[in-house]
Amino acid sequence: MLGFAKKAEKAGGGQTTNPRHVAIIMDGNGRWAKKRHLPRALGHKKGVEVVREIVRHAATTGLEALSLYAFSSENWKRPEDEVNDLMGLLRGFIKSDIDEFAANDVRLKIIGNYRALAPDIVDMIDDALARTAHNRRTTLAVALNYGAQDELVRAAQAAAGEGAISAEAIERHLDTADMPPLDLLIRTSGEQRLSNFMLWQAAYAELWFTDTLWPDFTPAEFDSALAEFGTRERRYGGR
Ligand code: IPE
Ligand code: IPE
Ligand code: MG
Predict the structure, then answer these.
(1) What are the residue ranges spanned by the domains of the chain?
(2) What is the CATH code for 18-229?
(3) Other beta carbons less than 10 A from residue 127's beta carbon
(4) b/e string for 77-87 if b means 16 or more Cβ within 10 A?
(5) Residue 142: strand pairing partners
(6) Ligand 1, residues 31, 48, 90: which to mutate, most atoms within 8 A of Cβ?
(7) 36-57, pLDDT tens digit by residue?
(8) How far, in Å, from the CA of 28 to the mean position of ligand 3?
(9) d(C-alpha 211, C-alpha 221), whole Å
(10) Which of 3, 90, 182, 198 has its CA 20 to 30 A from that of 173?
(11) Binding site membership of 213 for ligand 2 (Cβ less than 6 Å)
(12) How far apart are the CA of 223 and the centre of ligand 1, in A?
C-alpha cells in the first residue's frame, strides 16, 4: 500500500487523532519585518527563533516527524544579499542547535538538493546528520534547496533506472521515503498555495492555513492546527 494512503493512527480511548507527520511552509518573514520598518534580515532572524521554539514544542507532542520548508529551489531568485543572510542564519542554526537535537533524541534530515549549497554548509550538515542519525524520538526534516518538481524528477529517474516506473517505485525514491505519510500541511502568512512543496506527499494531507506571519507563530497555534486536524474526516477517495 502506498504510504500516503495509510490512515493516521487513532489514539486509544476514543481520543482525537494525532498526526504522525506535520509539514510547515514557514512564510511571512519579509512582511513581518516590513510592518515594523525593519530590514528583512531581522524577519528571517526572528523566524529562526520561532523554528527553534516549534521544534522543541513538536518534540514534546509525540509527533514522529516535522518537515520545515526553509529554502526553496526558487528562492535563489532573491537578491544575493538576502540569500547570503539566509545562508548565514542557516550556519548559525546548525552550529547552535545540533547539540540540543543530539541530546534530545531528534534526528535531523535534509530534503532537497543540499549538496548545491556552499561547501562549508554541506560539511556542517553532513556532520549534523551523522551525529543525529540514530536518534528516534522525532525526525526534523529541513527542506533546503528543495523543490517538489525537482524531487519528483530525481525520483522518477531513479525508479526508471531500476525498471518500470510505478507510484510505489517513485515513492521509494522521494527525499521523504523513510518518513511517515504526510498528515497535515500548515502554511502561515495568508498565502494559500504549495509553492512547489511536497506535491506528491500532499496528495491526501489535510491543509491548514493561517494569516499569522511566521515570526508571530506560536506553539499554541501549532496546537490549534493539531486540534483541528483531529476533527477532520479523511476519506482517501472512499466513503
Ligand atoms: C519565508 O518568508 C522565508 C523564506 C522563504 C526563506 P518570506 O521571506 O517569503 O516572507 P514574505 O513572504 O516576503 O513575507
Ligand atoms: C515558500 O515561500 C518557500 C519557503 C517558505 C521556504 P515563498 O515566499 O518562497 O513562496 P511564494 O514565492 O510566495 O510562492
Ligand atoms: Mg514568502
Answers:
(1) 18-229
(2) 3.40.1180.10
(3) 12
(4) ebeeeeeebbb
(5) 68, 110
(6) 31
(7) 999 999 999 999 999 999 999 9
(8) 5
(9) 11
(10) 90
(11) no
(12) 23
- Cell numbers for 130, please give them: 551523522
Cα(108)–Cα(138) distance, integer angstroms: 9
Ligand 1 residue neighbourhood (C-beta within 6 Å) = 26-31, 71, 75, 86, 189
What distance in angstroms lies between residue 2's CA and the mean position of ligand 1's atoms?
Answer: 33
- Interatomic CA distance for residues 71 and 142, integer angstroms: 9
Nearest to 208 by CA among 25, 54, 5: 25
Could you tell me the strand order of the sheet in which 184-187 lies?
Answer: 106-111, 138-146, 65-72, 21-25, 184-187, 206-209
What type of residue sits at position 140?
Answer: L
pLDDT digits (tens, 9 = 90+) for 77-103: 999 999 999 999 999 999 999 999 999
Q: What is residue 181's DSSP assignment?
A: P
The residue contributing the CA closest to ligand 2 atom 9 is 75
Model-wide pTM > 0.85: yes
